[in-house]
Design brief:
28 helices, 6-stranded mixed beta sheet
Length: about 950
């Protein structure tokens, strides 16, 4: 099918429109003067004589004359114009946005920022007066009547829009993003525009009769090639992203061989310069009489080029509009590098990181005054257990900056400790991610899983850096150099045991190897007291939990499988951090577990949860917000074979990252010196229960939760020595043993086999339902248990069984052939019944800490009209009993939208929802590989 052409005769009577939004003026964030020029460039690119696919009257430009003040853009006005366009346009609809873009702490929910936008310290609703790409912009555009919808995003984190790209099934929709997911981009040059839009302008307007038409798919390849010489922030490769649903669409057509620029105003005219153009105002390509200026057909090529150059020079001298863009090379000036102060990205004053695990959003104030250069931004990667405290310290550090312009911004973020070690051991992948993942789905992508390259790394324990160095390749050591500057605070790991009222000290409270302490609380008391359940955070999450697990595995007569059986309780699955574990105990929904569980956590976490609620006094320290009176106080028992968490501070230097190197080095050292020595910094750590003191000699501060009345008798003034020190190889072996300790997994696929799957063309063929299931079974090991059920009812059950649930054949061929032979059935799929039966099947039989995975593959047709109470009941069933992770695969656009069954099941069970915006074959294979032997690597 030929690409859609808005200029084609059959489409001329239709309504076409481009909503062009350029936010260059901000109240709370740094202004972006380059955006104003980019807005004029994209306007010209779409309407250029001879190449443009739209007429000037078909553009709606914001900011316009109706703005609340000159140059400002209100988010509600922008959303209103997008809504009007999607209701009125039945031809081509183009939406363009240039400005600040930010994401939540976990890298999701891209928000487009407008003039009044600001960020607040509310983790649930951090963005005020901004538009959510997922919940507002994409939600509107999915309802568009247009033949084609094309969206262009020129902002930081534009690539994160792909996570929520959910067009309607039959909708033609293309999304072009300035960079990849998690990547920030420079703010551009006020005289020429933002780099990405400059490149688009040249590609769209520079086409001659000899050029190929600029279809969306061709433009993607061309803009990627054009941006390749440039670098995004932190020297990331600059690779524009794209998503497309439909065939193709024409965005520019070949123009005349020698096109002369207008001798009137520049491409933007003067109305926009003065505060905005009316919705139907013609552009400056029209002559004084309003008629389009005709190209000089009698001129020779050299005369036309000289004339174009003179026009460009004149325009530039007058405040310039890049009028001669078509006479220049297609490459977007690769030799032009952003200035050292300006290249910190469109979101430099709001340090924010996106990654695949936990994270933190850190607002750095109200933003600099007008005319201030973006601050130099430090990225600080920390262990999950210490993130809240480091964030508080960074806030205080930034508040010292009392000048008119902020000099430094700090982004504090986090990720699983094991992911961080893997990333540093393969540091070149942080700078240059692989172009694609292998079919197994096992693909290390630090930018996706953690975020951008850090300037500072603060793990919880020094031994974590030794793990990095022990298996780091020479190339990785060259790409990322780690320099230790010292420790900033200390806290030991403890076994926090419920403190029984009136109980006298017992010899069992004395320091001892961790295995002995655990055995003591598990055996119960001689007086008949019940044994305690022992819980620990996920060892792959934080250093403290992994070091504690190393001590338990290190006992000669203990097997990892036995240890894991002791540390598992179905009422509370492993939590990513110590705080999450304590919050899970405090919610009151787990019967007696909250006061019958001994927990392996840092001492500072226990001390904070022992405190009463904060009083109304300013600065009063109280327990975390999730804590409650229902949670029993706990007393610390100190293991002698778990190293003290010493919070080492590492400066990370990246090869090739030479811009601002000296200034960055100075800021990093200043930040460390302040953390280690400044009274204000020590006060932050002390208030959160950490110990401070000379390097290697942690002391107990006086004004600390550790010395509060609530912790009298619960903590020790002196810390026991840790002997012998744990080695890096022991920790690495523990991680491997932990991944294998849970043994074979149980995987059950629920395959929607109703005829709608065939009708919607998602049943058979490469990349469709049966193929996805068959390919992902490559991640199932020979000792795992798996099966494939069809959701259409059989003779005596709610499902059919193409592959009965059980041990797989050593030869995977028969099972895959059975999946391939499965027919679509002329019955409605019983989605709810199948999910209930599947959960029950996975939970039956083998007990203990067994990995269980339920995979639902569906087109959502038979679950679209489920009653809300049925969905709620199913989600409750999925979260009760032995843990089962649910991964849902939606084969239609929008199936993973918040509130729908797929999303709610995945979110409630710690699973994942995949849809057409994902690489389904790779991602599903990777999800299956996380269960059982597929993840034992």
């Amino acid at each position: 099918m030929p690409p859609y052409n808005a200029r084609a005769p059959q489409n001329r009577a239709k309504t076409h429109r481009a909503v062009l939004i350029g936010v260059d003026s901000y109240t709370h964030e740094p202004d972006l003067p380059a955006v104003a020029h980019s807005l004029r460039l994209i306007e010209e690119a779409l309407t250029a004589e001879g190449t443009g696919v739209l007429d000037p009257g078909e553009l709606l430009i914001l900011p316009g004359p109706t703005g609340s003040s000159p140059g400002t853009v209100d988010p509600l006005e922008a959303l209103r114009e997008i809504r009007n366009a999607r209701e009125q346009v039945d031809g081509l609809l183009v939406v363009y946005f240039a400005g600040h873009g930010l994401v939540r702490a976990d890298g999701t929910d891209l928000h487009l920022l407008f003039s009044p936008s600001r960020v607040i310290a509310d983790p649930h609703h951090p963005f005020v007066d901004a538009l959510s790409w997922r919940d507002q912009v994409m939600a509107e555009l999915r309802l568009a009547r247009a033949d084609w919808v094309v969206v262009v995003l020129d902002c930081c984190f534009a690539g994160n829009a792909r996570l929520d790209f959910h067009p309607e099934e039959q909708q033609n929709f293309a999304l072009l993003m300035a960079a990849e997911q998690g990547v920030e981009i420079p703010p551009g040059d006020a005289a020429t525009g933002t780099d990405f839009t400059v490149g688009l302008h040249r590609l769209l307007t520079g086409r001659t009769w000899a050029s190929k038409p600029a279809t969306f798919t061709r433009l993607v390849g061309e803009i990627r090639e054009a941006m390749a010489p440039l670098k995004a922030v932190h020297d990331h490769r600059w690779i524009p992203g794209e998503r497309r649903h439909g065939d193709d669409v024409l965005l520019a057509i070949p123009g005349r061989k020698h096109r002369r620029e207008s001798e009137g105003n520049g491409p933007s005219g003067t109305a926009h310069e003065a505060g905005g153009r009316s919705k139907r105002e013609p552009t400056g390509r029209e002559g004084a009489g309003g008629a389009p200026a005709q190209p000089g057909e009698s001129e020779t090529g050299s005369e036309a080029e000289a004339r174009s150059a003179r026009s460009a020079g004149s325009a530039h001298a007058e405040g310039g509009t890049h009028a001669a863009g078509t006479a220049q090379a297609v490459d977007p000036a690769p030799d032009r590098r952003p200035s050292s102060r300006r290249h910190r990205a469109l979101c430099a004053a709001l340090a924010l990181v996106c990654f695949g695990g936990a994270g933190v959003l850190l607002s750095v104030g109200d933003g600099p005054d007008r005319g201030c250069a973006p601050p130099l931004e430090l990225r600080v990667l920390v262990d999950p257990d210490i993130r809240p405290t480091v964030q508080k310290a960074a806030d205080v550090y930034l508040d010292r900056d009392t000048g008119d312009c902020r000099a430094v911004g700090i982004s504090v973020y986090t990720g699983n400790s094991t992911d961080v070690v893997d990333a540093f051991q393969a540091a070149p992948l942080w700078q240059a991610p692989p172009a694609s993942c292998p079919p197994s789905g096992d693909c290390l992508l630090p930018q996706r899983d953690l975020g951008a390259q850090p300037d500072v790394w603060i793990p919880a324990a020094s031994i974590t850096s030794l793990r990095v160095l022990a298996e780091q390749s020479a190339a990785a050591g060259t790409a990322a150099k780690l320099d230790s500057l010292g420790s900033v605070a200390y806290t030991p790991m403890v076994l926090a045991v419920p403190a029984e009222a009136g109980r006298k000290p017992d010899p069992a409270d004395r320091p001892a190897p961790l295995a002995d302490l655990v055995a003591g609380v598990r055996d119960g008391g001689a007086d008949g007291t019940e044994p305690y359940q022992v819980l620990r955070p996920d060892p792959e999450g934080g250093d403290g939990a992994l070091l504690s697990t190393t001590a338990l595995y290190g006992t000669d007569d203990r097997r990892p499988t036995d240890v894991e059986a002791v540390l598992t309780d179905d009422r509370l699955p492993p939590q990513p951090t110590a705080r999450d574990l304590m919050c899970g105990l405090a919610d009151g929904s787990r019967n007696e577990l909250e006061d019958r569980a001994a927990v392996l956590i840092p001492e500072q976490t226990m001390a904070l949860f022992n405190l009463p609620s904060a009083s109304g006094e300013t600065g009063a320290v109280g327990r975390p917000a999730c804590a409650s009176d229902i949670l029993e106080h706990r007393a610390a028992r100190y293991p002698t074979d778990v190293p003290v968490l010493d919070l080492p501070f590492f400066r990370v230097t990246w090869s090739g990252a030479d811009r601002d190197a000296a200034a960055r080095e100075q800021v990093v050292r200043d930040f460390y010196d302040w953390l280690a020595e400044a009274p204000e910094a020590r006060a932050v750590f002390v208030r959160d229960g950490f110990r401070t003191g000379p390097s290697g000699k942690p002391s107990l501060p006086a004004a600390s939760p550790l010395t509060a009345k609530a912790n009298e008798g619960a903590v020790s003034l002196l810390l026991p020595p840790s002997n012998p020190p744990t080695s890096a190889s022991e920790v690495t072996e523990t991680l491997r043993d932990y991944r294998q300790a849970l043994g074979p997994g149980r995987v059950l696929y629920l395959l929607d086999d109703s005829t709608s799957m065939e009708d919607n063309r998602v049943w058979s063929g490469p990349g469709r339902a049966k193929d996805l299931v068959a390919r992902s079974t490559a991640s199932i090991g020979p000792d795992d248990t798996f099966g494939v059920w069809g959701l259409s009812p059989g003779d005596a059950a709610n499902h059919t069984e193409p592959v009965p649930f059980g041990r797989p054949d050593p030869d995977p061929g028969p099972a895959r052939e059975a999946i391939g032979r499965a027919p679509a059935v002329n019955k409605n799929a019983r989605v709810l019944d199948g999910l209930r039966d599947g959960l029950s099947e996975l939970r039956s039989g083998q007990e203990g800490p067994v990995p269980r995975l339920l995979v639902l593959v569906t087109d959502d047709e038979d679950s679209a009209d489920l009653r809300g109470e049925d969905v709620r009941a199913l989600v409750e069933t999925a979260t009760e009993g032995p843990p089962v992770r649910v991964v849902t695969v939606s084969l239609r656009g929008g199936g993973c939208a918040p509130g729908l069954l797929n999303h709610r099941l995945a979110e409630a069970t710690g699973g994942r929802c995949l849809d057409a915006a994902d690489d389904l074959a790779t991602e599903l294979t990777a999800e299956v590989a996380k269960t059982g032997t597929g993840d034992a690597r």
